[in-house]
Amino acid sequence: LVWSRGLVDVYKRQVFTTDTVGLTTVSVTDTAGNVGTDVEITALVTGDSQYTPQMLDFDVEGATSQYTSFIPGSNILHIANDEKAATLTVKATSRYNSAISGTGTVTVNQ
Fold it and tell me: For the chain, what is the mean pLDDT?
């Protein structure tokens, strides 16, 4: 007997509301990276619910190069070849509540 299961489309549905009660902090992990490379920034939103939305927007401060920036829509920071800053400050802000944010430091290895 051979049992065959047809192709089934499964959709995982997550329901998030724009109710920001319960979002408490954003923690950003400090890291380091070399000039001319991409660095993945790790950040975590904490809150009162196991379903705390993790959607974040990222910004960088303290860069001397106009080309040091986040790849749009991601947590990947490109450190430009001509970056001269020794450290960069990265800020992660909740997309659900812009008042909830956190910062971390990226040490730039020249």
Answer: 84
